[in-house]
TrEMBL record:
Name of this chain's protein: 9315_t:CDS:1
Ranges where the record places region Disordered: 88-109, 134-154, 205-236, 297-316
Sections of the chain in a coiled coil: 318-618
Keyword annotations: Coiled coil
Compositionally skewed regions (Basic and acidic residues) per UniProt: 88-102, 205-227
Upper taxonomic lineage: Eukaryota, Fungi, Fungi incertae sedis, Mucoromycota, Glomeromycotina
Length: 653
């Protein structure tokens, strides 16, 4: 801006309104020095270069920042992939542990099945033995033994013990069922949590894929912006080189201008001398007011007058016209140089549209002033023609020479017109270049704005990605913490379940001991029953023996009664009769006692049968309960195995 405002007064000083002095064409443009239009000063060029350099440094810093952000995103993605790999390895370890535990549970289940099959076979064998005992004890009708009573009491005590053990076992099984339900609920909750964790992991994987795609897109944009920065750098280097070329051209033009100014000063001095000589000659010859006859211009030049004064005037007029033409050519060359300088300066400018508009206005003013100058030259040439017409009436030879010079001047004027047309063409071309440069400047401005918007959007996207990555990192840390807590809880729960399994195994061992004890009790009961059967058999034999004895006694009593009736009158017979009666009374007492014993034995036998039936029913009930408990234990073992397998699957996930 400062260069343009400084150069404008110089142009104004150069193209001021001409002061027309007769017969002194050098003074048409005034007496002031005419400096050429200078290009942009080095300060403005350096300021523009500094501004472009700052923009380049800012773009490089932005690219470095962008590169650091991309590197940080890559490191975070690498860390995330490492964490995923670690989780995968932990999942594989948990899967191997799960397989080991599954194999152990399968072996344990196989052993439990074999034990359960053996227990079922033993129960079937006991049931058959019990039925055999029940069938064998159906025909017992009598007998009494102290050992039988003690055996029945011991059986009752053992039965109570078995019932109490069965009740305790049932309570323990109920407690285990409650614990198993709680463990199942916790396992289900853990399974749901692990499913949620798996969903979150899948979401994290999807987010990681999106982040990878976004990172690739940012890298592509970063590459494009880097290419644009390289283009701007090359453009800046071109501008710097152009500025250096302009500086060199400016120095050369300044040296040419100084030489031309020296020549101009010399020409002015010569002009002044010629003007003084012209005025002196004019005073000597007088004033002539006449017009040139056009017919004379068409004739051949005839030399009239041989005076030295006319020859000197003619030579002086020729010299003046030649000097004027030389000055006009110099002015035209100067205009060409000025237009060349303006064109070179316009090609290298990267200023704003306002400065270009001011340059355009200045160029229009310059063109207008050039036209005014040409019009002044034309007017001055007309004045010269008038003066030559006035001089031709006095000096014919001078007139003929003036006519020839006039024709030459007309040709020079035509040449000036041609040069003016060329100048107009060059100005139109310059305007086209100016419009093209203006369009290029608009395109460059739009491109810079697009680059700024792209860089701003990239920064915002990078900040969003950084915040999202931080959020994902926090969520990943939370998920890892929850996973550790759940794994620790799972390990604790696994220890509890292992303890419960050991308790169940111990309880199973106790049940096996109880079954063995029951088998022993059954064997003892079977032995007692066999002993009781033998005693009943002895009682039957004794009853049969007593019955036969009673029968013998009855027969003897009848024989004695017959004898008594035959020998009723003798003393010996009366004594025998009394003794027989007494014996019969004793026998009757014994018979009644035996009958009472028989009835008591029948009652005891009925009691033993009832107790046997009760023991049998209790044994069957206990056996059914044991079967139900074994079935529940089997079901619980299968449920626990399923829960353990589910927990292992979830922990593996």
């Amino acid at each position: 801006m400062s260069s343009r405002t400084k150069s404008k007064p110089a142009l104004e000083r150069r193209f001021t309104s001409p002061t027309v002095v007769p017969l002194s064409p050098i003074n048409v443009v005034g007496t002031e020095e005419i400096p050429l239009q200078e290009p942009a000063p080095p300060a403005i060029v350096n300021a523009e270069i500094t501004r472009l350099h700052k923009e380049l440094v800012a773009a490089i810093k932005s690219n470095k920042k962008h590169s650091s952000k991309v590197a940080r995103l890559e490191s975070e993605a690498k860390t995330f992939r490492a964490s995923i790999t670690k989780l995968t390895s932990e999942k594989q370890e948990i899967q191997s542990k799960k397989d080991e535990k599954s194999n152990g549970l399968l072996q344990e289940n196989t052993s439990l099945k074999s034990k359960f099959t053996a227990a079922q076979k033993e129960l079937v064998r006991l049931r058959r033995k019990n039925e055999e005992l029940a069938n064998g004890a159906g025909g017992i009708k009598g007998g009494k033994s102290e050992t039988q009573t003690t055996d029945v009491e011991s059986l009752r005590n053992e039965l109570k013990q078995v019932q109490n053990a069965n009740k305790n076992f049932k309570m323990e099984v109920k407690k285990l069922s409650t614990d198993f339900e709680q463990a199942k609920q916790q396992s289900d909750e853990y399974k749901r949590q692990m499913m949620r964790t798996e969903k979150e992991c899948n979401a994290l994987k999807e987010s990681n894929k999106k982040l990878t795609m976004e990172k690739n897109r940012i890298e592509r944009e970063h590459k494009e912006s880097r290419q644009q920065v390289d283009q701007l750098t090359s453009r800046n280097q071109q501008l710097v080189q152009k500025s250096l070329n302009l500086g060199a051209e400016k120095s050369r033009l300044k040296s040419d201008l100084n030489s031309q100014q020296d020549e101009y000063v010399q020409l002015r001095q010569t002009n002044r001398k010629l003007a003084s000589e012209k005025n002196s000659l004019k005073r000597q010859s007088g004033t002539f007011n006449f017009k040139i006859d056009p017919n004379l211009l068409a004739k051949d030049p005839v030399t009239k007058g041989d005076s030295s004064s006319s020859r000197s005037m003619s030579e002086m007029g020729d010299t003046t016209i030649a000097v004027e033409l030389e000055n006009a050519k110099n002015e035209i060359n100067e205009l060409r140089k000025q237009i060349s300088i303006i064109q070179n300066e316009g090609k290298s400018l990267t200023e704003t549209n306002q400065q270009l508009t001011k340059d355009k206005d200045q160029l229009e003013i310059t063109i207008k002033e050039c036209r005014e100058k040409i019009e002044g030259l034309v007017a001055y040439n007309k004045q010269l023609i008038d003066e030559l017409e006035n001089l031709s009436t006095t000096h014919q030879q001078s007139e003929i020479n003036s006519n020839s010079r006039e024709a030459e001047l007309l040709s020079n004027i035509q040449e000036l017109t041609t040069l003016d047309a060329q100048v107009q063409k060059e100005i139109s071309k310059l305007r086209q270049d100016f419009e093209l440069m203006k369009d290029n400047n608009i395109l460059l401005t739009n491109k810079n704005e697009y680059l700024e918007r792209t860089i701003t959007e990239s920064r915002e996207q990078i900040e969003q990605l950084a915040s999202r990555n931080q959020q994902l990192r926090e969520e990943s840390n939370n998920v890892t913490t929850q996973y550790g807590e759940r794994v620790s809880y799972s390990n604790g729960r696994e220890k509890q379940l292992n303890l419960r399994i050991s308790d169940l195994e111990q309880l199973n061992k106790q049940l096996q001991d109880q079954i063995n004890l029951t088998n022993q009790t059954r064997d003892s009961i079977q032995q007692n029953y066999s002993q009781f059967e033998r005693e009943i058999h002895d009682c039957r034999n004794q009853i049969d023996r007593l019955s036969s004895q009673n029968q013998n006694l009855v027969e003897e009593c009848n024989s004695l009664t017959n004898k008594y009736t035959t020998s009723l009158g003798s003393d010996s017979s009366r004594n025998a009769t009394n003794s027989i009666v007494q014996m019969s009374g004793d026998l009757s007492i014994k018979v009644s006692e035996l009958q009472q014993q028989n009835e008591e034995l029948d009652r005891k036998l009925a009691d033993v049968k009832r107790e046997r039936d009760e023991a049998k029913g209790t044994y069957l009930v206990r056996t059914a309960k044991m079967q139900a408990q074994i079935k529940e234990l089997k079901k619980e073992a299968s449920q626990y195995r399923f829960a353990l397998a589910s927990r292992t699957d979830l922990s593996a996930v």
